[in-house]
Design a protein that fits this description.
InterPro entries: Amidohydro_3 (IPR013108), D-aminoacylase_insert_dom_sf (IPR023100), Metal-dep_hydrolase_composite (IPR011059), Metal_Hydrolase (IPR032466). It is an enzyme of class 3 (hydrolase). GO terms for molecular function: N-acetylglucosamine-6-phosphate deacetylase activity. The chain is an alpha/beta fold and 507 residues long. It folds into two domains: 275 residues, TIM Barrel (Alpha-Beta Barrel); 84 residues, no CATH class. 34% of the residues lie in helices and 20% in strands. The strands form four sheets. Strands 1, 2, 3, 4, 5, 18, 19, 20 and 21 form a nine-stranded mixed beta sheet that branches. It has a six-stranded parallel beta sheet with strand order 9-10-11-12-13-17, sandwiched between helices. Strand 19 and strand 20 form a beta hairpin.
Length: 507
C-alpha cells in the first residue's frame, strides 16, 4: 500500500529529474551521500541512510540506487545534518571583500540572518541591499530583519530624545517598504545609539507594522544587566500587544547580581508562552560578549568614575575586558584594560575613562573601538542552551575579535554535546536547524526532506570542535567535512570553494 506521504516523495523525486529528462540525458545525475548517520533536523534520532541531491534540492532519501553519472560520497562514520541557520549573525559586514564567507561556512552555517541589533545591512533599504546581493552572490544564504536604529537614524539622525508621532509615522513607512522587500521583521538594539533613546511606544508602533505583514520581532534588550527584568518585560509587552512572535537576541545574564537566575528567567518566559505570547530566544555558547566600550554606560555618562568602577566590578572585570579594536591607538589591540592600567600605573576605572576619551577624540560617535568582555556564568549559559525554545546563533562576524565568529556551532557540538553531555546530538542539531528555521519563519530549509533545499553539513561527531580563542580568534574549527548550499559544495577538504551558491531568503 502506498501512503500519501510516500506518493508525495515519489512525485518530488520524479520532478527533480525532469530537467535531466528534457535535456535528453541518459539519467538524472546528482550527488548521492551514502552510509551517513542522518539527523533530519526534526529532533528525531539519527538513521544510517542515503540522501540524494539533484540541483538545489534534496530529491530522495533512503535506499537509493546510484545513477551512472552520480557523484557518490561514502560518509560512513560521519553525520549528515541540515545546514546550520545562524539566527543572529553579523557576517554580512565586509562580505563583499570575502564572498566565500569562510568563517561562517567552515562551522557548518549555510544561512545567516542579518540586520540584527537594530542595524540593517550597509544601512540600505532592504530592497537595494537584496538587489545588490543578487547581483553579487556569496557562499551563504542571507535573510534579514529591518533594523530600528537604521530606520530611526534615517528619520531623526542621532537625536537623543523620544520620537514624535510624525517621526514614528515616517519610520513606519520605511519599515513597511523593508517588509514589502522581504524582511523577516523588525530588530532592535535598545542598548545602542540611537535606539537607547526610544520609548516603548515607538517600538510598539513599529512592531505592529511588522506584525501586519506577518513578520516577527527580535531584540537586543534595553538592558542585559542593570535593568534586565524591566527590559524583558518590555519585550513581552510588545509581543502581547503587537501580536507577533518575539525573540530575545543572544539571551544572557550579564551582571554578577543576576548570575544563577536562569531558571527564574525561563520560568517567566514559559509563563508568557502559556499566556499566548510566542517568545523564544537565541544564544551563543560563550561566557563573554563583544561590543563597544560605551555599552556598559546606559546613562552615557562617560566621565563618571563611579559608573566605570561599577562596570568593572559588577558587569565585568578589568582582566576580562580585552580590546579587539581601537583605531585611536591600535597598539592596544589584544590587551586588557588591566594591562593598560598597569602600564599607566593607575586604577583600571581611570584607564577605562581615559580610553573612552581617546575614542571620542578619534570619533565623536565613538566609532573604531570594540572590546570582548567576560560577564556571564557558565551554568546560566548551559541552562539557556537547554531551554526547549532556544536555538543557537553566533552573533559573530568575519575577521571577528571574538571566537564566536568562527567557532560557535562546532563548540556546541564538540563541547556541550560530546564532552559535557549538556544535550544530545539530535536535540542540538534540531536547535541549529529545524527549530531555528521555525523561529525565523524560514520554509523548506532546516530539515533534510525530499523537496527541501539542499543546505547540508557533513561532519565527524568524534572530531568536531572549536579551536578559536580570545587570543587567537581566527582559528578555524575542526571536524567539518563538507558543506553544501543549495546543492553546491561551498566547503570541502578544510577550505572554502568560493562557489557563490547563496541566495536571498525573503519572508
Amino acid at each position: 500500500m502506498i501512503t500519501a506521504s510516500l506518493r508525495a516523495v515519489a512525485i518530488l523525486a520524479f520532478l527533480a529529474c525532469l530537467p535531466c529528462v528534457f535535456a535528453a540525458a541518459p539519467a538524472c545525475a546528482g550527488t548521492l551521500i551514502r552510509n551517513a548517520t542522518v539527523f533530519d533536523g526534526s529532533g528525531g534520532p539519527g538513521v544510517v541512510t542515503s540522501v540524494k541531491i539533484d540541483g538545489d534540492r534534496i530529491s530522495a532519501m533512503g535506499d537509493i540506487p546510484p545513477q551512472p553519472d552520480d557523484r557518490i560520497i561514502d560518509a560512513k562514520g560521519l553525520v549528515l545534518a541540515p545546514g546550520f541557520i545562524d539566527t543572529h549573525s553579523h557576517h554580512e559586514f565586509g562580505i563583499d571583500g570575502a564572498p566565500a564567507a569562510a568563517e561562517a561556512i567552515s562551522q557548518g552555517i549555510t544561512t545567516i540572518v542579518v540586520g540584527q541589533d537594530g542595524s540593517s545591512p550597509d544601512e540600505l533599504p532592504l530592497a537595494q541591499y537584496f538587489a545588490h546581493r543578487q547581483q553579487h552572490p556569496v557562499s551563504v544564504n542571507i535573510a534579514s530583519y529591518s533594523g530600528h536604529n537604521t530606520l530611526r537614524e534615517k528619520v531623526m539622525g542621532l537625536a537623543e530624545r523620544e520620537a514624535s508621532d510624525e517621526e514614528i509615522g515616517k519610520m513606519q513607512l520605511l519599515l513597511k517598504a523593508d517588509m514589502d522587500a522581504g524582511a523577516l521583521g523588525l530588530s532592535t538594539g535598545l542598548e545602542y545609539d540611537p535606539g537607547i533613546y526610544s520609548s516603548t511606544r515607538e517600538v510598539l508602533a513599529l512592531a505592529r507594522i511588522a506584525a501586519s505583514a506577518g513578520g516577527r520581532y527580535a531584540s537586543h534588550l534595553r538592558s542585559e544587566d542593570r535593568h534586565f527584568w524591566e527590559a524583558l518585560e518590555e519585550l513581552l509587552t510588545i509581543g502581547e500587544q503587537a501580536k507577533l512572535p518575539v525573540q530575545v537576541s543572544h539571551i544572557k545574564l550579564g551582571s554578577l547580581s543576576l548570575w544563577g537566575q536562569a531558571d527564574k528567567v525561563l520560568a517567566r518566559l514559559d509563563a508568557a508562552r502559556r499566556a499566548g505570547i510566542d517568545v523564544s530566544a537565541d544564544i551563543y555558547p560563550y561566557t563573554y560578549w563583544q561590543s563597544t566600550l560605551t555599552v556598559l554606560f546606559p546613562e552615557r555618562n562617560f566621565d563618571d568614575l563611579a559608573a566605570a568602577e561599577y562596570a568593572l566590578s559588577e558587569l565585568t572585570t578589568a582582566d576580562g575586558m580585552h580590546i579587539t579594536q581601537f583605531d585611536a591607538r591600535p597598539e592596544f589591540v589584544g590587551k586588557t584594560i588591566a594591562e593598560i592600567a598597569a602600564s599607566r600605573r593607575e586604577e583600571p576605572a581611570v584607564t577605562y575613562l581615559w580610553l573612552l576619551r581617546l575614542a571620542r577624540e578619534y570619533s565623536p560617535e565613538y566609532d573604531g573601538q570594540q572590546v570582548v568582555g567576560v560577564s556571564m556564568s557558565e551554568a546560566d549559559v548551559e541552562r539557556f542552551i537547554t531551554w526547549e525554545h532556544s536555538n543557537f546563533c553566533s552573533d559573530g562576524a568575519l575577521n571577528d575579535g571574538h571566537p564566536r565568529g568562527i567557532g560557535s556551532f562546532p563548540r556546541i557540538l564538540g563541547r556541550y554535546v560530546r564532552e559535557q553531555n549538556t544535550l544530545d546530538l539530535a536535540r542540538a542539531i534540531h536547535k541549529a536547524t529545524g527549530l531555528a528555521a521555525g523561529h525565523m519563519g524560514i520554509r523548506q530549509r532546516g530539515q533534510i526532506y525530499p523537496g527541501y533545499y539542499a543546505d547540508l553539513v557533513l561532519f565527524d561527531p568524534e572530531r568536531i570542535i572549536d579551536r578559536a580563542t580570545i587570543e587567537k580568534p581566527g582559528l578555524a574549527s575542526a571536524g567539518i567535512s563538507t558543506v553544501w548550499v543549495n546543492g553546491v559544495a561551498v566547503y570541502l577538504d578544510d577550505a572554502a570553494t568560493g562557489a557563490p551558491a547563496g541566495v536571498i531568503i525573503r519572508r
